[in-house]
């Protein structure tokens, strides 16, 4: 059986009776058994997946109404809650946490008869960009298993890239969907802030993060977006997109569009291979009838500093609830008073989480906030202004998704500053709320390179159209696993 | 000069649900930790959902306290670790980045004294800690999260009070006002709590936290002033500190914690976008605001000629004024006001008694009419009222069951009067020269009729007989 099909192809095949959901899911589970020991994309595999798929087949056979996913196997990053499933955030702190409710994206996918094959590995609490900070061990890049798959949604990208599922949901706080998508040669999407409900997504930096699809094709992303996006009464930050069909007119091209190439994101620190891929991408976009020119966004140089200041502040607050009193892991309270208990209980957090929480206690504190946190907020607001200016001139902005090629596991883990810079090209979209997508573009030295396209707030539909156009110019080799 | 400022926490107990979820705002009837959900327990992945009704009620309070009301409000996180706080931060409001809390500066008159309101903020109540065990060795702390997330307004005043009496008067006015707005039941345990800051001339400011009732607040302030004055008189410096109110011993105790040094790391709550309170909504809320206590009072005096003191009592208690407004007519208004403020008050002086009372407005109408027409004496009207409150039966049934009706049959009364006159010759003689004595004879008639004789008629008949 061919597992290497897109989500839309899967839907067609099952709808036409050429494929049974049960067979496909069961083959997918076999594939996971075969390759995941090596890749470690999954923290848990759903033991009921095959049974659930067979129920959907029954519905199809009996002519009942079937949801638009037709039993499609999807993996879910382990910071998104599925009712009655363990949701650990790849942390020992939540080793035993079983979510008592479904995230909104999960209930919407359930309504459309998706099957969740498993919970995908990630950096602990989504803090990291290599998946090496998972408390349960790193995931590996299917293009070369000595290399990191990117992160923090590494498990999501690996599982899609290595055909362990058809599509996945990750979350993107500073590039966490786009970065692993680029490293694993999949599509990774960070929508406009508020387009997808965060209810049930375990917060890291709630004011800037979004759930985003990881898929094999741009159209698959549009397909998932149609299901999971839009107003949700459980999330007061969601925006109304009633009537938007992200698949409609997706092939209508980008002729006559103006595109700005962000100079600050393709400069000195950029790997030459990545820079040359970017130049190729620009030529391809021009070949499609768009006009490309150099654009400058001055505040970009401060964006990583602002990003880490803001995310640390919010993380320090969001993770404060993990005091192990109401849920968590087994650790009796006898013999402790409150403060000594929680400080002991919280030693279960991993090193990166602790690093960011210490930072988060410091940068917004009295006497330091003016120098760090408030300054970071200023950068955020100036950057947002600059971006809105830029979009008066351009329909899209383009840059490499990640300035470097995937690197080896263990290569940068002890150098937090070097790691932080890997985020350089992606954090801007989170700080300003704009939609961004990473499109697989080429393979260099056996390692994938993705190109990032960005559009103004709420221009998600248009952005997907540009990504589809770029995708149509690319033919990529098959993953060697 | 002594300066006292208050921070009053008032639960919006009349709301249906909590501030950020659909659990009940009235948590009191539940077993511990049963009025909870993933949101108010702060489970991973949950987000707050703002209760629009809470915003409206809090805005109404701000308006009633003459506060400015901004077009947009924002929520902030106050970060600190405490076991009663499920998220280890509290969602609250503040004004450090411009006026973003639900009420800005305002003021309220307490007699002739103007008390300035600094701001009003809407926030969530934490859970409740319960300590068990007799000594510190075996003490355990239990947490009940039923209260966590209950909508609370914090009313912050300027340090405008000069003595405990002004504090008490202010609190009385404030709790009447909140009750009249139908936002809170100040009688419920824990619905009103307060912190106070107190300083005397030449001394530092001392904060008193954890005062569980308005009654204790006045005591705490009084204690603190006395304590500070006593230190001052012995030239001992008054430390700037936070003290706790010891509920059992009725004293303030230095908290010795670093609480005052806590850095709350306030920042915007990203999960709740700024909430618009449009001019239209503000106008609507203003129009729907219940009639104020002072306007009620004025109406009672000018329209019905009710004495000021009676009007005061009637207007300041929403339970009484609602009863009055739904029962009186122009003719019986004064009588009904009398019944409520003299006879009814003792029967319904607690929330429980009010909830159990079976009294309906029509009862009051019947009672007043019977008194005016002489069918019932005041004493018997009071007895009947007691039965009504207890049973809810209608007045005529109670009159016949308890045999309360007046003897207003002239012939029957004359027979009794004759009997009294023959029994009390001395008094009759005296009454001829001293009209005051006749009341003694009326009393005798009343005795014989067990209080049912129509007093007016009895007097008339007696006077006729004697002269």
What are the SSEs and their pairings?
The complex is a heterodimer of chains A (481) and B (467).
Chain A: H1 7-15, H2 21-39, E1 42-45, H3 49-61, E2 73-77, H4 104-111, E3 115-120, H5 154-161, E4 167-172, H6 178-184, E5 187-190, E6 210-215, H7 218-228, E7 258-262, H8 272-287, E8 291-295, H9 300-318, H10 338-345, H11 351-362, H12 373-393, E9 396-400, H13 416-422, H14 427-432, E10 436-444, E11 447-454, H15 460-471
Parallel strand pairs in A: 2-3, 2-4, 7-8, 7-9
Antiparallel strand pairs in A: 1-3, 4-6, 5-6, 5-10, 9-11, 10-11
Helix pairs in contact in A: 2-3, 5-6, 7-15, 9-11, 9-12
Chain B: E1 3-11, H1 52-64, E2 72-73, E3 76-79, E4 89-92, E5 106-110, E6 113-124, E7 128-132, E8 140-144, E9 151-157, H2 164-180, E10 192-199, E11 206-211, H3 214-233, E12 241-246, E13 251-254, E14 267-268, E15 275-276, H4 279-288, H5 293-304, H6 308-316, H7 318-327, H8 333-344, H9 351-356, H10 361-372, H11 378-391, H12 395-402, H13 410-423, H14 425-433, H15 438-448, H16 455-466
Helix pairs in contact in B: 1-4, 2-3, 5-6, 6-7, 6-8, 7-8, 7-10, 10-11, 11-12, 13-15, 13-16, 15-16
Q: What features would you describe in this structure?
A:
The complex is a heterodimer of chains A (481) and B (467). Chain A has a domain at 7-251 and 436-452 and 459-471: Amidase signature (AS) enzymes (Alpha-Beta Complex). Chain A has helices at 7-15, 21-39, 49-61, 104-111, 154-161, 178-184, 218-228, 272-287, 300-318, 338-345, 351-362, 373-393, 416-422, 427-432, 460-471, and strands spanning 42-45, 73-77, 115-120, 167-172, 187-190, 210-215, 258-262, 291-295, 396-400, 436-444, 447-454. Chain A has 15 helices and eleven strands. Chain A is globular and about 65 Å long. Chain A has an eleven-stranded mixed beta sheet with strand order 1-3-2-4-6-5-10-11-9-7-8, sandwiched between helices. Chain A has 481 residues and is of the alpha/beta class. Chain B is elongated. Chain B is of the alpha+beta class. In chain B, helix 7 (318-327) packs across helix 10 (361-372). The model of chain B has no long low-confidence stretch (mean pLDDT 90). In chain B, 40% of the residues lie in helices and 17% in strands. Chain B has helices at residues 52-64, 164-180, 214-233, 279-288, 293-304, 308-316, 318-327, 333-344, 351-356, 361-372, 378-391, 395-402, 410-423, 425-433, 438-448, 455-466; strands at 3-11, 72-73, 76-79, 89-92, 106-110, 113-124, 128-132, 140-144, 151-157, 192-199, 206-211, 241-246, 251-254, 267-268, 275-276. In chain B, the strands form four sheets. Chain B has an eight-stranded mixed beta sheet. Chain B folds into three domains: 3-284, no CATH class; 291-402, no CATH class; 410-466, Arc Repressor Mutant, subunit A (Orthogonal Bundle). Chain B: It comes from Candidatus Nitrosomaritimum aestuariumsis. Chain B: This is Asp-tRNA(Asn)/Glu-tRNA(Gln) amidotransferase subunit GatB. Chain A: Keywords: Ligase.
């Amino acid at each position: 059986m061919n597992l290497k099909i897109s989500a839309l192809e899967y839907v067609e095949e099952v709808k036409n009776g050429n494929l049974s959901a049960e067979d496909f899911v069961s083959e997918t589970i076999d594939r996971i058994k075969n390759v995941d020991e090596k890749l470690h994309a999954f923290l848990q595999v759903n033991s009921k997946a095959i049974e659930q798929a067979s129920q959907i087949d029954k519905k199809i056979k009996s002519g009942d109404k079937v949801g638009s996913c037709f039993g499609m196997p999807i993996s879910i990053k382990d910071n998104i809650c599925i009712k009655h499933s363990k949701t650990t955030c790849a942390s020992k702190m939540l080793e035993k946490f079983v979510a008592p409710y479904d995230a909104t994206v999960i209930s919407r996918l359930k309504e459309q008869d998706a099957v969740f094959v498993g919970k995908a590995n990630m950096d602990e609490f989504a803090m990291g960009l290599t998946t090496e900070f998972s408390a349960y061990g790193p995931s590996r890049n299917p293009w070369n298993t000595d290399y990191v798959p990117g992160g923090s949604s590494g498990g999501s990208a690996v599982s899609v890239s290595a055909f362990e599922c058809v599509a996945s949901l990750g979350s993107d706080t500073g590039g966490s969907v786009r970065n692993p998508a680029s490293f694993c040669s999949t599509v990774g999407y960070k929508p406009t802030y508020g387009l997808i409900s965060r209810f049930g997504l375990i917060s890291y930096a709630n004011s800037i993060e979004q759930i985003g699809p990881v898929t094999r094709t741009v159209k698959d992303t549009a397909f998932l977006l149609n299901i999971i996006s839009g107003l949700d009464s459980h999330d007061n930050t969601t925006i109304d997109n009633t009537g938007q069909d992200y698949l409609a007119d997706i092939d209508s091209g980008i002729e006559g569009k103006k595109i700005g190439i962000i100079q600050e994101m393709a400069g000195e620190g950029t790997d030459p291979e990545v820079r040359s891929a970017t130049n190729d991408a620009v030529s391809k976009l021009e070949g499609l009838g768009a006009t490309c020119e150099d654009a400058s966004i001055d505040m970009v140089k401060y964006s990583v500093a602002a990003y880490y200041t803001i995310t640390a502040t919010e993380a320090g607050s969001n993770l404060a609830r993990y005091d192990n009193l109401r849920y968590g892991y087994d650790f009796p309270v006898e013999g402790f008073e409150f403060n000594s208990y929680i400080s002991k209980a919280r030693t279960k957090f991993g090193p990166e989480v602790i690093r960011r929480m210490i930072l988060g206690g410091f940068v917004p504190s009295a006497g330091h906030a003016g120098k760090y946190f408030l300054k970071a907020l200023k950068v955020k607001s100036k950057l947002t202004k600059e971006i809105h200016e830029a979009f008066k001139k351009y329909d899209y902005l383009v840059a490499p998704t990640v300035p470097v090629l995937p690197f080896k596991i263990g290569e940068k883990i002890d150098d937090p500053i070097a790691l932080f810079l890997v985020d350089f090209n992606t954090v801007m979209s989170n700080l300003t709320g704009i939609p961004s997508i990473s499109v697989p573009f080429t393979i260099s030295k056996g390692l994938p390179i993705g190109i990032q396209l960005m559009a103004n707030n709420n221009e998600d539909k248009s952005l997907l159209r540009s990504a589809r156009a770029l995708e149509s110019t690319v033919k990529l080799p098959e993953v060697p696993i | 000069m002594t300066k006292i400022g208050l921070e009053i926490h008032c639960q919006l107990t009349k709301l249906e649900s909590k501030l950020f979820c659909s659990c009940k705002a009235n948590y009191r009837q539940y077993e511990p930790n049963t009025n909870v959900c993933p949101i108010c327990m702060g489970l991973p992945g949950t987000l707050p959902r703002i209760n629009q009704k809470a915003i409206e009620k809090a805005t109404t309070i701000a308006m009633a306290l003459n506060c400015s009301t901004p077009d947009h409000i924002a929520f902030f996180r106050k970060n600190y670790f405490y076991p009663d706080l499920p998220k280890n931060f509290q969602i609250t409001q503040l004004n450090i980045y411009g006026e973003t809390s639900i009420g800005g500066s305002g003021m309220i008159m307490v007699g002739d004294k103007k008390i300035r309101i600094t701001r009003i903020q809407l926030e969530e109540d934490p859970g409740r800690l319960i300590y068990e065990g007799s000594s510190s060795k075996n003490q355990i702390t239990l947490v009940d999260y039923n209260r966590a997330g209950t909508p609370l307004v914090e009313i912050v005043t300027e340090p405008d009070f000069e003595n405990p009496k002004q504090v008490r008067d202010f609190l009385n006015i404030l709790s009447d006002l909140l009750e009249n707005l139908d936002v809170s039941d100040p009688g419920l345990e824990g619905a009103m709590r307060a912190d106070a800051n107190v300083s005397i001339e030449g001394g530092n400011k001392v904060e008193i936290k954890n005062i569980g009732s308005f009654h204790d607040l006045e005591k705490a302030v009084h204690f603190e002033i006395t304590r500070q004055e006593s230190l001052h008189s012995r030239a001992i410096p008054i430390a700037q500190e936070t003290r706790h109110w010891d509920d059992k011993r009725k004293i303030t105790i230095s908290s010795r914690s670093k609480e005052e040094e806590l850095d709350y790391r306030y920042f915007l709550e990203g999960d709740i976008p700024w909430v618009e309170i449009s001019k239209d909504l503000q106008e609507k809320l203003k129009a729907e605001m219940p009639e104020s206590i002072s306007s009620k009072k004025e109406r009672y005096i000018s329209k019905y000629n009710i004495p000021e003191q009676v009007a005061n009592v009637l207007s300041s208690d929403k339970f009484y004024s609602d009863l009055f407004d739904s029962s009186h007519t122009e003719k019986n208004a004064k009588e009904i006001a009398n019944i409520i403020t003299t006879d009814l008050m003792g029967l319904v002086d607690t929330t429980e008694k009010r909830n159990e009372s079976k009294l309906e407005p029509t009862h009051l109408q019947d009672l007043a009419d019977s008194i005016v027409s002489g069918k019932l004496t005041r004493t018997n009207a009071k007895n009947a009222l007691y039965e009504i409150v207890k049973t809810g039966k209608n007045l005529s049934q109670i009159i016949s069951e308890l045999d309360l009706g007046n003897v207003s049959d002239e012939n029957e009364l004359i027979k009794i009067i004759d009997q009294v006159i023959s029994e009390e010759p001395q008094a009759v003689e005296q009454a001829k020269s001293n009209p005051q004595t006749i009341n003694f004879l009326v009393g005798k008639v009343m005795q014989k009729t067990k209080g049912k004789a129509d007093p007016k008629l009895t007097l008339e008949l007696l006077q006729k007989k004697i002269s």
